Amino acid sequence: MKKVTNKQLAKALYEATGELKGSDLKQVLANFVVLLARSHKLKKSEYIIRDFLHYAKAQEGIQEIEITSARELDNKVLAHIKKAFGAHTEATVKVDGSLLGGVRIKTEDKILDASLKTQLNKLKLSII
């Protein structure tokens, strides 16, 4: 029997719940919890929920990005970065002083690194 991943369970839950509301939604969720218990996946429910939210946002056309900068960014800069990725972009912002300057932006499948730390490391490698 093939192992079912957390992402597969999250996708199945999304597809099963669709447009359900009220008691129908409660019943599907209760059945899903029973399925998790039978497959010994209850301890993984936090990861399944995270994957469910990522999948649901992707289905709705919302792109998630993570912006890491050396200092706190003002709202104007954040809005400009989000606009570059599309109208439906949600950003998580982190501050990492070790970057020294610039930003690092992670999407689901790419990392755009314009940090001073990375630029200095590249310069160091080219000199050596």
Q: What's the structural blueprint in terms of helices and strands?
A:
Elements lengths: L5 H12 L4 H17 L6 H15 L3 E7 L5 H11 L3 E7 L6 E5 L4 E5 H12 L1
Parallel strand pairs: 1-2
Antiparallel strand pairs: 1-3, 3-4
Helix pairs in contact: 1-3
Sheet having the most strands: 4 strands, mixed
General form: elongated
Indicate the percent of residues in helices: 40-55%
Structural class: alpha+beta
Number of structurally distinct domains:
2
The unreliable regions are none
Identify the notable features of this structure and list them briefly.
single chain; 128 residues; alpha+beta; 2 domains; four-stranded mixed beta sheet; 5 helices; 4 strands
Summarize the structure.
The protein has 128 residues and is α+β, with helices and mostly antiparallel strands. The chain has helices at 6-17, 22-38, 45-59, 75-85, 116-127, and strands at residues 63-69, 89-95, 102-106, 111-115.
Give a structural overview:
- The protein has 128 residues and is an alpha+beta fold.
- The protein has helices spanning 6-17, 22-38, 45-59, 75-85, 116-127, and strands spanning 63-69, 89-95, 102-106, 111-115.
- It has a 4-stranded mixed sheet, with helices on both faces.
- The model has no long low-confidence stretch (mean pLDDT 92).
